[in-house]
């Protein structure tokens, strides 16, 4: 087991990529703390993973709320003493074209996708510094590389995540903390199920592999980067996109 006796905090863990990542890490022996603002869905995910009851607990929390984040860190340490892995998976969209985008659309996405990642990482990095070890993984996106129509706010935040990842890798490496990002491409989730079929087909055709990714593909990437197999990898962005960014 890759993560026996390791503790991982996963934000945005109630569904999709976050929930699949929790399952992957639990299967590899980790103890997992799932964070999400959606308490009902969080409870449903916990019920689905009930066979791991002694190795998982959930905390409903808003990653943009510093007091809530401090509570997450405090509770995790009280339960399991260490925080070995942080996966900043939480993120939202509020898509609209530049000329129609409201200030609220901009602020909401920036708050979760940038401030949330900053706040979680700042609090957890203090713990990892004391431990002299840790892995921080951030969710970026392929749109950080090439932009996307109607996603000024989202693309800006995901490009910002890459900038923070590289900066933190330089700052925290001296404490034996590795920091990397994963940039998913078109991943089949409940969110994409709402997209019209012809749009989905166009998205699929943009990949040289002519297929979608699935949440487990991202979970596998997180697991690799968090493991000792990636001990000499930091400050990088791993595109998991079927070749969309080439």
TrEMBL record:
Its EC number is 1.1.1.100. GO terms for molecular function: 3-oxoacyl-[acyl-carrier-protein] reductase (NADPH) activity. It catalyses: a (3R)-hydroxyacyl-[ACP] + NADP(+) = a 3-oxoacyl-[ACP] + NADPH + H(+). Residues 6-185 form the Ketoreductase domain. Pathway: Lipid metabolism; fatty acid biosynthesis. It is an enzyme of class 1 (oxidoreductase). Keywords: Fatty acid biosynthesis, Fatty acid metabolism, Lipid biosynthesis, Lipid metabolism, NADP, Oxidoreductase. InterPro entries: 3oxo_ACP_reduc (IPR011284), KR_dom (IPR057326), NAD(P)-bd_dom_sf (IPR036291), Sc_DH/Rdtase_CS (IPR020904), SDR_fam (IPR002347). Homotetramer. Belongs to the short-chain dehydrogenases/reductases (SDR) family. Catalyzes the NADPH-dependent reduction of beta-ketoacyl-ACP substrates to beta-hydroxyacyl-ACP products, the first reductive step in the elongation cycle of fatty acid biosynthesis. This is 3-oxoacyl-[acyl-carrier-protein] reductase. It comes from Aliibacillus thermotolerans. The gene is fabG.
């Amino acid at each position: 087991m890759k993560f026996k006796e390791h503790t991982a905090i996963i934000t945005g863990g109630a569904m999709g990529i976050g929930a699949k990542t929790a399952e992957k890490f639990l299967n590899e022996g980790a103890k997992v703390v799932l964070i999400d603002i959606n308490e009902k869905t969080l409870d449903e995910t916990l019920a689905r993973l009930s066979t791991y009851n002694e190795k998982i607990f959930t905390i409903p929390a808003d990653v943009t709320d510093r007091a809530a984040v401090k509570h997450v860190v405090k509770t995790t340490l009280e339960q399991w003493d260490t925080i070995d892995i942080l996966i900043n998976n939480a993120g939202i969209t509020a898509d609209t074209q530049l000329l129609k985008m409201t200030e609220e659309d901009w602020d909401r996405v920036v708050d979760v996708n940038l401030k949330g990642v900053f706040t979680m990482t700042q609090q957890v990095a203090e713990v990892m510094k004391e431990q002299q070890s840790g892995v921080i993984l951030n969710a970026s996106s392929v749109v950080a590389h090439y932009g996307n129509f109607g996603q000024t706010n989202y693309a800006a935040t995901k490009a910002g995540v890459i900038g923070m990842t590289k900066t933190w890798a330089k700052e925290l490496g001296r404490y034996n903390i590795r920091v990397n990002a994963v940039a998913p491409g078109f991943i089949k989730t409940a969110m994409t199920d709402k997209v019209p079929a012809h749009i989905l087909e166009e998205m699929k055709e943009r990949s040289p592999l002519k297929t979608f990714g699935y949440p487990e593909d991202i979970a596998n990437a997180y697991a690799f980067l968090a493991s000792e197999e990636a001990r000499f990898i930091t400050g990088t962005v791993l595109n998991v996109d079927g070749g969309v960014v080439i």
